[in-house]
Amino acid sequence: MIGTNKTVMNRLLKFQIPKHANWLYTIGFSLAFVFILQIVSGISMAIHYKPSTRLAFLSIHRTDRLFRYGWLVRSLHVCGSSALHLLLYLHIFKGIYYKAYSGSKKTLWLTGSIIHLIMILIGFSGSVLSWSQISYWVTVIVTNFIDSIPIIGKFLRSILLGGHTVCDSTLRRSFVCHCILPFICLIFIIIHLLLVHIKGQTSPVANRLPISRSFEDVYPNFVVKDIIVCIVIMFVIYVLCLICPNIILNKLGYIPVDYYTTPTDVESEWYFLPYYSVLKTFGLKITGIISIIAILSSVAVIPYIYNTKLSNTLTGMYRLHTITTFISLILLGLMGKCKYTKFISKLSKACVLWYLGFVFLPLIIKSFCYLISLILIPKC
Fold first, then answer.
1. Which residues are paired to 216 by β-bridges?
2. Do 281 and 350 meet the contact criterion of CB atoms below 8 Å apart?
């Protein structure tokens, strides 16, 4: 057993990373660290939570007031959720920017895409559990959009709600999903880490050959970077929890559910604002749903679209396009907080088209060139 542990430790410490790896390469370790923090704080809250429409709101605020450091645990969980999604988006950006999906890393990228989708489901199911004005009405809005999906929409909505309206069954199902999905996600994270160690890291330098001189051991230099970043993240989270714990929470999160009064300023958590903006922008519900599905699935199909080696000039253009694409996603999030106007609607649609153009435009061009070649090349 000791020999096995020693072999595993040597394997971890001798893991090779590119010498030119920058601070963006620390995000993966930070993600795993914050995710474990979320599981620990989530279990602490779940012990005292009551998945009932009559008691859910009271049980959360009772935990804040009556249990020692209950308010701190809840603030850590809320701020940790924001930190987790921020790091997740940065990790996806880093992977696309440096083409971490190239070569034999398609399986690695696929597991990361699955983790992304599971974390979105975890975040949404968790937002329902507070059973406040904001969580209730966001759930109503989202499930109404799901109902507009042809053929399977009503079936999916009934599964999510456990009935015809948002009720006790909805809360219990969200609680079960929020408790089970993190451990399913943890399995995929372990698989993802194993594949990283098998496939290796991608160099931030374009077209860098995998020669031994361009790589170094992760220990000690890069391990120190990982630890420093984790300390900084914990410091920021604790500052938010102790000094301004309400900066992330919506004010409607402190108001119990009122089934007969619809708030005028309903908005989701900030990490769901781009998708919320899409739902507000498109007049037809089905168009908004298709756009969101296309945005979420686009991450998974990128390795099969950008599967060719690019020259240095094209690599520069590709990275610039990647930056502008993520800027369009940030703009979508900002417009999710704005009041709906014609200008905001047109700008949101432009951002959606720009984002989807990054992913699907090369596929359209390849398909068009293939059709042209079939037409122009004479048959033998």
1. 17
2. no
Residues across the chain: 380
Distance of alpha carbon 338 from alpha carbon 72, whole angstroms: 31
Q: What are phi and psi of 247, to 5 degrees?
A: -70, -25
CA angle 134, 146, 151 (to 5 degrees): 165
C-alpha–C-alpha distance, residues 148 and 166, integer Å = 16
- Output the six-digit token pair for 31: 């993600």
Higher pLDDT, 217 or 153: 153
> b vs e for 178-206, b when ≥16 Cβ sit within 10 Å of the residue's Cβ?
bbebbeebbebbeebbebbeebbbbbbeb
Q: What are phi and psi of 259, to 5 degrees?
A: -70, -15
93, 114, 356 from 186: Cα distances, Å: 21, 11, 29
- Long-range contacts of residues 331-336, Cβ cutoff 8 Å, at least 24 apart: 332/273, 332/274, 332/277, 332/278, 333/270, 333/273, 333/274, 333/277, 334/273, 335/277, 336/267, 336/268, 336/273, 336/274, 336/276, 336/277, 336/280
Average pLDDT over residues 28-32: 90
CA distance 105 to 199: 7
Helix (H, G, I), strand (E, B) or coil at 132: strand
- 94-98, 246-250, 349-353: least confident range: 246-250
Task: Please name the residue that has the structure tokens 């020999």.
Answer: 3
Residue 60, judged by CB atoms within 10 A of its CB (0-12, 13-18, 19+), counts as buried
Task: State both tokens at 293.
Answer: 């599905």
Fold of 12-268: Cytochrome Bc1 Complex; Chain C (1.20.810)
C-alpha dist (Å) from residue 33 to 19, 28, 81, 92: 23, 9, 12, 17
The stretch 305-317 carries a mean pLDDT of 70
User: 64 and 72 in contact (C-beta within 8 Å)?
Assistant: no
